[in-house]
TrEMBL record:
<dbReference type="InterPro" id="IPR011989">
    <property type="entry name" value="ARM-like"/>
</dbReference>
<feature type="domain" description="U-box">
    <location>
        <begin position="186"/>
        <end position="446"/>
    </location>
</feature>
<dbReference type="InterPro" id="IPR000225">
    <property type="entry name" value="Armadillo"/>
</dbReference>
<keyword id="KW-0833">Ubl conjugation pathway</keyword>
<dbReference type="InterPro" id="IPR058678">
    <property type="entry name" value="ARM_PUB"/>
</dbReference>
<dbReference type="InterPro" id="IPR016024">
    <property type="entry name" value="ARM-type_fold"/>
</dbReference>
<keyword id="KW-0677">Repeat</keyword>
<feature type="repeat" description="ARM">
    <location>
        <begin position="333"/>
        <end position="375"/>
    </location>
</feature>
<protein>
    <submittedName>
        <fullName>ARM repeat superfamily protein</fullName>
    </submittedName>
</protein>
<dbReference type="Pfam" id="PF25598">
    <property type="entry name" value="ARM_PUB"/>
</dbReference>
<feature type="repeat" description="ARM">
    <location>
        <begin position="210"/>
        <end position="252"/>
    </location>
</feature>
Amino acid sequence: MVSLQDSHSISSRLPATRTFYTVSSVSSSKIQRSMGRSMRTIRSNLYQTDHSCSFAGSIAEKSVCGSENLTDSVVDLRLGELAARTNQSAKSSHTEENFLELSQAFSEYSACSSDISGELQRLAGIPASEDRSDPNPEPEAEPCTGFLERESFSTEIIESISPEDLQPTVKICMDGLQSPSVAVKRSAAAKLRLLAKNRSDNRALIGESGAVPALIPLLRSTDPWTQEHAVTALLNLSLHEGNKPLIANSGAIKSLIYVLKTGTETSKQNAACALLSLSLIDENQLSIGACGAIPPLVSLLINGSNRGKKDALTTLYKLCSAKLNKERAVSAGAVGPLVGLVAEQGMGMAEKAMVVLSSLAAVPEGKAAIVEDGGIPALVEAIEDSSAKGKEFAVLTLLQLCADSVRNRGLLVREGGIPPLAALSQTGTAKTKHKAETLLKYLREPRQEASTSSP
């Protein structure tokens, strides 16, 4: 960490060139029905009702039974009959206000949904990979019987059947989860994943059926596809408010963290989203942090895909609503990668990274780590080059760093912060102008004190 008393000592002890911590340097329907909210809807509305939360998830395109590319060619006869019958019967202080602004803005950069295969890549603007090779190729299906052996079935039929008529189907899936056959378990988890994909009433029905305790052991399955189906089914089920306590109280948190450490890229993303969904209950936040979720979230932030990084950012932000989790995030090394994302403008994550940095700056350890890892020069660059929202986030974070620290004010001056702040105080939005003017006043105070103390 840099130590200084005035701008002269700063100049003599700090290098003239700016070096940023980069992430790569660490490692690298036509039918009327009751619709449940998707995870993307939750993320869009989340910060309008809570001062410190945000939300994300993604699904692999290679799924045995739950792919987005479902066809109607193979449809269970019983489900078809039920659908036909159904068709015939026709949710403070100045500092708190600042965090509320950040929380509301954070959702603008979120794009998370429940089980939507491939759609998240389109939403995030991520081109599909041409290389479909996988070190864990999907195993050939073992013999199954009846409903569970069908590799796909129409989502339109699922959407049109009432929960009461789906009860026998859910019972078949529940029995399948208890099967000694890996293929039957995999298929049952995939069917439940799909049944819970969009409809809140289906999520409630599946939760009440006892599926949650039966799915949790599959999170530790050595078969990656069984694990992926299970974690995604739990993510989808967690979108129903009544299922959140059930999932947490059934011991899912530690197993979700296990997936976060060991799963496929998609499984890790969905495990992060499931933990985020559970963390919307405030009392779960400390439990999730205490169980060790933050280090693997930081690892996903460093090593994950763009989708994974965004999911890790959002989950970290919500968990860091709790002071103890802020300290855990700093200890886990979250600050360096966040500063790296701020410096890497154009990736679509700089603004979100600044929001999380602003949250961590609320604790002394966070402030010190941001300064030590090059946060001040990165934030100055953001004021010069980022979007209007990014400029506002950068100024707010710098305000937190400099409000009580003459040393940090000197660092900001040395990094050339005054000219862009002066420009922003004239051209920014009303809120941004006010923040920039306040920060400029802080920067004048050390010089005034120095001049009055001179002989």
